[in-house]
């Protein structure tokens, strides 16, 4: 090999070394970036015409299977977390005092408050002419307020979930717009042979953020362009971003149905969803708003209906029933076995028995809240306890309940309230366990992806030392060749 050829090889090697050093330094710098997805960059080398190694292009380490597993784990974890957070708020309505003795001051669970009312009635029954009637009134008020409060919590949870869904939809549209810009840059870079490794990282970062909102799958064509689909199959991006829409509901009541989310005009949440999504925060929030919370609301309404039925008065002449101790706005009769949506928010204690509203406590003992025709204690006996005993029995006697609550169709008001609390506690524990499980799976999937494609600082530092040694060798070779050129010129002169 002549000196000119050796010089050419040495300078090419030096340039290649500088390029490799730049790539390693870039990897080390990017490893400190926690804002998005980062893969290890590497040089694709080729043999130059002079026989030296030269950088042909820059690529990145990738593993489609592990990346897709991370996306799926992210979506599942986000859905479970969204549901768990909402159910935890609902569960607070049944998390209260440990004993009935504490109920008057501490309890708010309908089940505990029903027990407290039963205890107050049992204390009142032996001496219905005493001031113990005030304890019954207070226990009844606490129960009605407990149902009112629980119903308000359900409405608030649903409204918060609805607002978060609207925010999620806005986030999805923003991410799809960003994705379109980056995807276009990748397609152009692929065609021109430019370095697109950072753009690929950026695109993967967007996919990671998108999977947090909605479950996704992707396909990539030969030109480098990627298409995105929701886990239900609805197209989110194909050449251009598709529109994701939802109309936010500002006020929720028991009869309010939240609006569906649409992808390109196709409903993907709600009872009429043609292509229902399965994961992502959006799916978890929709499940909370439209299923779990509404079922609990139906249970609360059923408990309220059971109380109105249990304490209903009977007309001595016609046998007709009317709300007694418990009533509700616009009441014209008792609800029977049919659900009255929103009854838990409206139930209250009749003002006819409340001295603070001009009422008479003795009506709890005697009956007649709805007039003389409904009086049970027709003699006015101060020791009359028949009606109070009937009320005690009614709280523990089986009756028909609506199917909307998803619990037993035949139960007593007390057992139905207890079953509702058990159901909600089970939902809470299940959602909590599911969130923890998917969080662990996501952590493992993310770690596996990082191990396969992420930047290993130790390995990169080791490469940097090797490149420094290689640089020194190339520089020494150039120096030697330069000295040889000098000696040759002196010999010629």
Written account of the structure:
Strand 5 and strand 6 (240-241) form a beta hairpin. With 493 residues, the chain is α+β, with helices and mostly antiparallel strands. The strands form six sheets. Strands 3-4-5-6 form a four-stranded antiparallel β-sheet. The protein has a three-stranded antiparallel β-sheet with strand order 7-8-9. Strands 1-2 form a two-stranded antiparallel ribbon. The chain has two domains: 1-61 and 460-493, no CATH class; 75-172 and 246-438, no CATH class. The chain has helices at residues 3-30, 64-91, 103-106, 110-124, 133-192, 197-213, 281-310, 343-346, 362-366, 386-396, 413-453, 457-492, and strands at residues 41-47, 53-60, 216-220, 226-230, 235-238, 240-241, 244-245, 262-263, 266-267, 313-314, 321-322, 326-327, 348-349, 399-400, 410-411. It is 57% helix and 10% strand. The two termini are 23 Å apart.
SSE diagram, text form:
Elements: H1 3-30, E1 41-47, E2 53-60, H2 64-91, H3 103-106, H4 110-124, H5 133-192, H6 197-213, E3 216-220, E4 226-230, E5 235-238, E6 240-241, E7 244-245, E8 262-263, E9 266-267, H7 281-310, E10 313-314, E11 321-322, E12 326-327, H8 343-346, E13 348-349, H9 362-366, H10 386-396, E14 399-400, E15 410-411, H11 413-453, H12 457-492
Antiparallel strand pairs: 1-2, 3-4, 4-5, 5-6, 7-8, 8-9, 10-11, 12-13, 14-15
């Amino acid at each position: 090999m002549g000196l000119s050829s050796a010089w050419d090889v040495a300078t090419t090697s030096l340039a290649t070394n500088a390029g490799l050093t730049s790539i390693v330094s870039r990897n080390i710098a990017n490893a400190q970036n926690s804002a998005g997805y980062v893969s290890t960059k590497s040089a694709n080398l080729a043999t130059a015409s002079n026989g030296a190694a030269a950088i042909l292009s820059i690529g990145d380490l990738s593993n489609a299977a592990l990346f897709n597993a991370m996306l799926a784990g992210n979506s599942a974890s986000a859905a479970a977390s969204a549901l768990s957070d909402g159910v935890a708020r609902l569960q607070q309505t049944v998390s209260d005092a440990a004993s009935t003795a504490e109920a008057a001051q501490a309890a708010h669970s309908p089940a505990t408050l029903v027990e407290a009312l039963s205890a107050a009635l049992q204390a009142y029954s032996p001496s219905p002419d005493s001031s113990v009637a005030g304890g019954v009134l207070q226990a009844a008020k606490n129960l009605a307020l407990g149902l009112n409060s629980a119903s308000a919590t359900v409405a608030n949870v649903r409204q918060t979930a609805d607002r978060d869904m609207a925010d999620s939809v806005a986030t999805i549209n923003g991410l799809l717009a960003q994705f379109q810009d980056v995807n276009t840059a990748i397609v152009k870079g692929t065609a021109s042979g430019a370095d697109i490794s950072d753009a690929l990282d950026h695109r993967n970062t967007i996919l990671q953020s998108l999977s947090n909102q909605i479950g996704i799958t992707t396909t990539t064509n030969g030109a480098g362009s990627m298409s995105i689909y929701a886990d239900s199959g609805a197209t989110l991006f194909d050449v251009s971003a598709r529109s994701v829409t939802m109309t936010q509901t500002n006020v929720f009541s028991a009869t309010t149905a939240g609006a569906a989310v649409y992808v390109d005009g196709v409903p993907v949440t709600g009872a009429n969803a043609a292509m229902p999504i399965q994961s992502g925060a959006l799916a978890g929030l929709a499940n909370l708003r439209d299923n779990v919370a509404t079922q609990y609301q139906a249970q609360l309404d059923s408990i309220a209906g059971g109380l109105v039925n249990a304490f209903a008065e009977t007309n001595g002449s016609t046998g007709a029933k009317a709300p007694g101790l418990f009533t509700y706005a616009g009441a014209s009769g008792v609800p029977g076995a049919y659900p009255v949506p929103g009854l838990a928010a409206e139930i209250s204690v009749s003002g006819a028995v409340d001295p603070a509203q001009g009422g008479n406590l003795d009506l709890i003992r005697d009956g007649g809240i709805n007039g003389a025709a409904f009086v049970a204690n027709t003699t006015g006996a101060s020791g009359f306890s028949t009606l109070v005993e009937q009320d005690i029995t009614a709280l523990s006697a089986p009756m028909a309940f609506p199917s909307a609550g998803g619990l037993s169709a035949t139960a007593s008001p007390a057992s139905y309230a207890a079953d509702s609390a058990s159901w909600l506690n089970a939902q809470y524990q299940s959602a909590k366990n599911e969130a923890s499980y998917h969080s662990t799976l996501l952590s493992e999937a993310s770690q596996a992806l990082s191990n396969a494609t992420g930047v290993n600082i130790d390995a990169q530092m080791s490469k940097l030392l090797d490149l420094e040694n290689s640089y020194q060798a190339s520089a020494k070779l150039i120096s030697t060749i330069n000295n040889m050129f000098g000696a040759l010129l002196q010999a010629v002169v």
